[in-house]
């Protein structure tokens, strides 16, 4: 088969175009995201480092928040202790358990942008205030601080966070003031 140099260039350009188009993160006309997403209960590994992924999906492991995707979804890696002590590396996209009672505004709802800004700042300041438990994101302090700031609530709260939520609501903190119907 005799292919001219001009034809070779055209073939290479066509193949490159097909490959690049096929590898795009989103279909034409849709919004692309810069990070992988996961459905609740199914963490998504972002690298080939299986140790962190395996341990994070089977037990409890200390984590560092690398990126906040939504107030309920995060890219995490092993915290400093796990990196040093257990030689773990890698990243994982995890979410707060789907059956969690913690309620945050949905994307597009009143207060979503403010909540996302709060969460992003929170984990910029406290990146290791997290862990992964059986593949789900967890943080004892984050939930309490999010409720205290008025960016989340727990309906019919009779648990340990009842007083924190009542104080935020009484003080009209965060979304308790700016979003009518928040917590209703």
Features:
184 residues, alpha+beta, OB fold (Dihydrolipoamide Acetyltransferase, E2P), 16% strand
Account of the protein in words:
Keywords: Signal. By secondary structure, the protein is an alpha+beta fold. A hairpin with a 2-residue loop joins strand 2 and strand 3. It has helices at 5-22, 50-58, 80-86, 112-125, 140-148, 162-170, 175-178; strands at residues 44-45, 60-70, 73-78, 92-95, 130-133, 136-138. The chain has a single domain (36-178), classed as Beta Barrel (OB fold (Dihydrolipoamide Acetyltransferase, E2P)). Mean pLDDT is 78; it is low at 7-42 and 46-50. The protein has a six-stranded antiparallel beta sheet, with helices on both faces. It is built from seven helices and six strands; from the N terminus they run H-E-H-E-E-H-E-H-E-E-H-H-H.
**Beta-strand fraction estimate:** 15-25%
- CATH topology (level 3) name: OB fold (Dihydrolipoamide Acetyltransferase, E2P)
Order of helices and strands: HEHEEHEHEEHHH
Helical proportion, percent range: 25-40%
Ends: how far apart? Answer: 73 Å
Number of H- or I-type helical stretches:
7
Characterize the main sheet.
6 strands, antiparallel
CATH architecture label? Beta Barrel
Number of strands: 6
Provide the CATH top-level class.
Mainly Beta
Tell me the number of structural domains. 1
Q: What gyration radius follows from the Cα positions, in whole Å?
A: 21 Å
Determine the mean pLDDT.
78
Q: What class would the helix/strand composition place it in?
A: alpha+beta
Strand order of the largest sheet: 1-4-3-2-5-6
**Which overall shape is indicated by the principal axes computed on the Cα atoms?**
elongated
Q: Can you tell me the residue ranges where pLDDT is under 50 for at least 5 consecutive residues?
A: 7-42, 46-50
Keywords: Signal
Biased composition (Polar residues): 31-47
Organism: Cryobacterium zhongshanensis
Region (Disordered): 30-54
């Amino acid at each position: 088969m005799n292919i001219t140099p001009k034809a070779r260039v055209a073939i290479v350009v066509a193949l490159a175009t097909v490959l690049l188009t096929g590898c795009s993160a989103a279909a034409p006309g849709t919004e692309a995201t810069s990070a992988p997403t996961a459905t609740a209960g199914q963490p998504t590994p972002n690298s080939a480092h299986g140790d962190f992924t395996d341990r994070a999906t089977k037990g409890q492991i200390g984590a560092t928040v690398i990126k906040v995707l939504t107030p309920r979804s995060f890219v995490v890696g092993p915290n400093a202790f796990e990196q040093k002590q257990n030689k773990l590396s890698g990243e994982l996209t995890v979410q707060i358990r789907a059956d969690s009672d913690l309620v945050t505004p949905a994307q597009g709802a009143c207060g979503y942008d403010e909540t996302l800004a709060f969460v992003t700042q929170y984990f910029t300041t406290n990146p290791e205030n997290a862990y992964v438990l059986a593949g789900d994101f967890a943080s004892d302090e984050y939930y309490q601080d999010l409720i205290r700031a008025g960016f989340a609530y727990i309906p019919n709260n009779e648990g340990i966070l009842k007083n924190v939520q009542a104080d935020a609501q009484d003080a009209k903190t965060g979304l308790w003031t700016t979003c009518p119907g928040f917590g209703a």
